[in-house]
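hi support,

uploading two proteins for the ticket. first:
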Amino acid sequence: MTADKRAPEAVAVLDMGASAVRLVIAEVAAGRSVRVVEEASRGVLLGRDTFSGGVIRPKTADATFAALEGFRHIIDTYRVQRIRAVATSAVREARNSELFLDRVRGRTGIAFDIINGAEESRLVYLAGHVHRSVRTAAGDPPGGGRRVTPPHPYDASLFINRELSWLAFNERVLE
């Protein structure tokens, strides 16, 4: 096949945030056009543990492992070869983050990068300015294809985390 006729490559992004773990799988065509084919999210309260007690507790870790094992199955179903996995403040600030991420890698084969506060802030800033030209399997860009001004700070958190996943995908997997 010529470079222009290559089959799309399936890639994945995982975002481990304070309240959920999110997965986005997309197909990237030779011209770098991107089509999101799968999105999943599982609520896990890593932030509750870290921000109240300083560590990720076993019950929360087990819920996270279960979510990531399910995501691993989805990733394998799509035959994804490239994965970008990022963890933010809830993991970064936990005293047991290294042990936790070692266990994640051992159980799922997925290595998460902890992004620092500056990188997280940069991605959050860019989330409000990203130009949307990507289409999902349903035909809509992520986030509904429009800039959203969330009416409430908690809604803003959910919006930002979704965009953080998307920006990590665009900037890291596709570079």
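and the second one:
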Amino acid sequence: MIGNMRDLPLFLRAPRAGGLWLIGVLIPLATLVGFALSYHNLFDWARTHGWSLGFAPFFPLLIDLLVIVGEVILFVAAIDGRTPWRVRVLAWAVIIGFTVLSVAGNVSHAATQDVATRVGWGLPPVVLAIALGLGLGELKRQAGKYRQGATAKRQAWKQDPVRKITADEGVSPRTALLVQKRERAAVKAASNGHGEVK
């Protein structure tokens, strides 16, 4: 597995960067379009099921925003890498449950009863969930590569004992402790805070 873009041959770096950039543009675009269409359909559903004009605009937010909240929780979990499994399971349950509710709301007031029309009305919330899921999956994969590289660098570094620092630098043990503390902080900062430096 390539942990660093510099490990790639030069002619592959630009296509890889372009592909990641394209993912970074298209995933939010697909998510936004899926949310907008689903919002419109759920707003229509609320209006035709007795919600007043003042409250109907909030109804779609009750459903689709929870899909997005679940995805954001998974986003943070993908970056962090140490989120407890129960948090991820709960986030997936919210995403799946509210995507199903959104599909039901989108489909239930389709203009005709034929399958093709109902599938078309049900697509926006599915696109919303899939686009975010694909984007987060790629993010998790990329974050995993970064964490592997940072962990390897951190594990390769071994701090000198106070006695060695005292002898090599000709400083007091108290100053050597301060040097040791600053070295630890520098290594942790260089690894961007991933993991613990002991």
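thanks. also noticed: Residues 5-155 form one domain.
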